[in-house]
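Section 5.1 Outputs to date
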Amino acid sequence: MNADDQGATIELSLIGLSEHARNLHRDGYCREAVRHESQRLLNRLRILADQPELDGQPLIERAFSEKAPILVLNDLSTRLERNEQAGLRYLLLGVARGVRNVLTHDIEREVSAQDCAVWLGLIGWLHQQLDLVEYVAPAAEDAQPEPGAAP
């Protein structure tokens, strides 16, 4: 840990992170802690949205669709509530594309202790937001046919 990383701590047990990620962080494996938690976030979203076949951007856009969401953070009845829902969707997209994908495919990418604390804080907050969402069954016309099913 270099001098720039001093003071980059966060109480990880308070923000819904896994014990595994907390241990990785504690032991200095910042890149792996962030990659693990970003993947866990998307796995959790897949389960909440009941979309086992989707991942990444398609999963997030389906779960928090502007027109027919299957996960809702609020009633979506006001502009402010729709903005809150859209903001959650965009933050999840940012973590999926800008964190999880980058750390998965660029194995040389380093993550400083300070960046690790910030990313884990955001991912923990996103887990807390997922605690608040409600599942809304997809409308029949939105339902996707099973692979191999007759039209």
